[in-house]
Amino acid sequence: MPISALQRDHLENALQGHEAALRHNDEPSSPLRARVHATLVQLGRDENVLTLLSDFMDSPALVDELRTNGAAVLRDRGISLPEDVTMQVVDRYGGDPPAILRFVLVMRSLTLFADWDPRTGVSVRARAPFE
Predict the structure, then answer these.
(1) I need a surface site. Which of 19, 34, 122, 128 has the fewest CB within 10 A?
(2) How far apart are CA 83 and CA 72, in angstroms?
(3) Is the four-CA dihedral 28, 17, 43, 86 of positive or negative sign?
């Protein structure tokens, strides 16, 4: 099942917000903030990543392969994650869906989670240094 139109719209709106933040000239952006926005745009605009997300929704075998050998799956699909980004499958025992695909961005003391939930789509959240 491909990414739904609603999920794609939500993702596109989020990406446009990050792109607007990169273009915003009224106040200087910190280099860290600019890198965060640029990295999220790079991930979200990568057609190979989007294909992976679609396939993740349909294939329990792919979920297992990502869980056990994610680096090989990424390499075989021509995906090179941006610097400071890792990927992991997060199991949600008893949850629906049973797993989400998480991209983790760590820059200095900031950790960002960009999650793909097959049911609800993309979400991004930051973790404070003390969590």
Answers:
(1) 128
(2) 17
(3) positive
Q: How many CB atoms lie within 10 A of CB 12?
A: 12
Would you state the structure tokens that stand for residue 11, as one six-digit string? 């993702």
Query: For 55-81, what is each residue's pLDDT tens digit?
Result: 998 888 999 999 999 999 999 999 999
C-alpha dihedral (107, 77, 14, 104), degrees to nearest 10: -30
What does the alpha-carbon distance between residue 117 and residue 76 come to, in Å, rounded to a whole number?
A: 23
**What DSSP string runs through 70-88?**
HHHHHHHTT--PPTTEEEE
- Check residues 108 and 100 and name the one with the higher pLDDT: 100
**Cα–Cα distance measured from residue 54 to residue 109, given in angstroms and rounded to the nearest whole number:** 31
pTM to 2 decimal places: 0.87
SS3 89: strand
Q: How many residues does the chain have?
A: 131
Instruction: State whether residue 118 is helix, strand or coil.
Output: coil
Residue 40 buriedness (CB in 10 A; 0-12 / 13-18 / 19+) = buried
